Amino acid sequence: MPKNRTSSAPRRMLRLRRESWGFVIGSFLFGLAATRVFGHAVGPQLDNITYFVGSLFFTAAGFIQLRLSGRPVPGAESHRVERYDWWAAVVQFAGTLLFNVSTGVALIHGLTVEQDRVWGWRPDLFGSTAFLVASGMAVVATTETDKLWDPHARNWRSTWLNMIGSVAFGVSAVAAFIVLGTDVVENAGVADLGTFVGAGCFLVAALLMRPPQPRYSPNQARTVS
Fold first, then answer.
1. pTM of this prediction?
2. Which residues, 6+ apart, have CB-to-CB distance to 50 below 8 Å?
3. Per the UniProt record, which residue ranges are transmembrane (predicted)?
4. Cβ neighbour number for residue 103 with a 10 Å cutoff
C-alpha cells in the first residue's frame, strides 16, 4: 500500500536530527583539535585527521540542511525568508566543502612535528568567509519571522550563536596568516582560540535547534503503512 502523506513529517524530523547531530559532532571535533593539549598529546597527524573528520560531519549536515531548505521556485513570488534560508544553506555548504579541502590538504601533506608548528591546519579564509556570509543571511531570515532581540525564540538564539561562531572563525583565519617573508604564523594562539570559540558556539547552536525525540504512538504504525 502507498504510504500516508503524514509519514513525510517523521522523515523530516529524522533528517533534522541528523543535521543537528552532524553539526554537533563536527563542532566538537573542531574544538577538540584546536586545543593545544590535544594536539600535543596525539601529534600533528592525528590532530589533522580530527579536523578532517570534523569537516566531513559539517559537510554532511550542511547537505541535509540544503536539501531541507527547498529551493525557491524560479519565477514564483518566493517569500523573503525562504530565499534567504536557501541562499544561507547554499553558501554554508560551499564553506564546508572549502574546509574539506583545507583540512584534507593538511592531512595529505603529512606534516612533521616541526612543520606543524608553522604550517599545521589553519582556518581557511574562504571557508570562514562563507560561514560569515551564510550567518548574515540567516540573521536576515530570522528577523523576518522573529524580533531582532527575542530571547524566548529558539531560532533567534541559535542564529546569533552561529553568527558569533562565524566571526570567531574569521578572526582565527586572519590570525593564522603567515607573516610575509617568514615562516611565522601571525598569532597562533588567537587562531586556535578563535577556532575553539567558534566551534563551541556552533555546537551549542546545534543542540538548541535539535528537534525533540518523537513519542511512539500505537497509531503511528498504521499511519505510515
1. 0.77
2. 29, 32, 33, 38, 42
3. 49-66, 86-113, 125-142, 163-182, 188-209
4. 27
Quick one: cell of 91?
553558501
- Structure confidence by residue, pLDDT tens digits, 53-108: 999 999 999 999 998 887 765 555 457 777 888 899 999 999 999 999 888 887 87
Cβ atoms 172, 115 nearer than 8 A: no
Rg of the chain, C-alpha, whole Å: 20
Domain residue ranges in the chain? 8-212
Residue 48, φ and ψ in degrees, nearest 5: -65, -35
Q: List Cα–Cα distances, 195 to 29, 35, 41, 220, in angstroms.
A: 11, 9, 18, 43
* Residue 111, helix vs strand vs coil: coil
**Integer Cα distance of 45 and 198 in angstroms:** 22
Distance CA 122, CA 171 (A): 11
For cell 600533528, name the residue. 44
Instruction: Look at the block and give the residue holding cell 523576518.
Output: 144
Sign of CA dihedral 217, 218, 223, 225: positive
Tally of residues, the chain: 225
